[in-house]
Predict the structure.
Amino acid sequence: MDFGFTPADDSFRAEARAWLAGHAPYDRGRRAWEGVLGAAGWVGIGWGEGGYGNRTATLTQQVAWAEEYARSGAPPRSGHIGENLLAPTLLAHGTAGQKARFLPPIAAGAELWCQGYSEPGAGSDLAALRTRAERSADGRSYRVTGQKIWTSLAHEADWCFVLARTDPESRRHHGLTFLLLPMDQPGRIDVRPIRQLTGTSDFNEVFFDGAHARAEHVVGAEGDGWRVAMSLLGFERGVSTLAQQIGFAQELARVVRAAVENGTADDPVVRDRLVRLWAELRTMRWNALRTLGGSGGPGAPSVAKLLWAGWHQRLGEVAVQVRGAAAGVGPADWSPAAPYRLDDAQHLFLFSRADTIYGGSDQVQRTIIAERVLGLPRQSKG
Ligand SMILES: Cc1cc2nc3c(=O)[nH]c(=O)nc-3n(C[C@H](O)[C@H](O)[C@H](O)COP(=O)(O)OP(=O)(O)OC[C@H]3O[C@@H](n4cnc5c(N)ncnc54)[C@H](O)[C@@H]3O)c2cc1C
């Protein structure tokens, strides 16, 4: 596929850039910002289907929007899970009623979602999950009981999609169901933030104690949840990898600037690491474009995940190397009330530790490549 941008794409890009510039600074708060994006039709441009309040855009226009968004310095999207994970899943597997109920508020930036997959005993091995969903006698609802963990944005979300076991006799990926449930259920859903290395709490433990989900909000059939859940994970990457790389390029540029300013750019080891990072980022960009164009080859998503996660961690390491001893202490306006307020380099170094875990850990990606690409014998699952 030719990934050149057409004149129509260029004017789409110009419109996106002007709109973003016209809405800076982006200090309204994350939820309000989602509403502003939604009102202008910028949420859901990649759905391939309009009519929900979203614009529709070609693949190259989606790339242009993602790149302009990353360049603008606008905040990370708290609507990402609904827009890029749940919505494509509903478009593929949802009923007409589910699409009509859930897609317009996602497109409007009015309802935020979280992803209830991982559990304390089921992360990489998701099929070991134990959260149960029991159907009511009248068949109209489910009661969900169990614990999820690492649930990003659960403290802000209005809704959660949950993978739960509906057949108590089932094992592994059989007997699971994909349910949509509202988060505002006091006494039945308890969200407890987890404090991270960075001092912030972006994810949570979520306890369900008889939480209520309507039967009409099961996506796919009861017992068919694994297929729906895996299909959702397939949407996890896409044009967002290109936007992510723009963000990476900006982070690298900041580290280069800091190295020039404080003289560490004269250190041959630092120079070498910076140039390697730059070259690897170029390679990742071409690889992402090739994959989006459909010619990435088998295992391409796993290769891409391995590459960017390791790259980003190495960038974090170079960032603190450039900062030197100062990276080990708090900022000048440190106060006990905010003991973990971090500068860019510190935050990058600490947060990037998570990159090789979420979205499929390095070890899991290597297993996928080993089994599906190299044809090595399958790992036993116990
Ligand atoms: C920042 C962040 C955000 C997240 N957001 C969400 C979210 O919104 N919703 C959600 O459901 N989950 C979320 N997760 C959870 C994430 O999906 C899990 O952390 C991930 O699946 C790994 O599971 P685990 O933490 O239980 O580790 P484990 O699966 O216990 O793995 C521990 C270690 O063992 C290795 N390992 C495990 N199995 C194998 C194997 N078979 N072969 C070789 N090595 C193996 C792993 O690679 C890892 O190094 C998030 C995680 C992070 C870090």
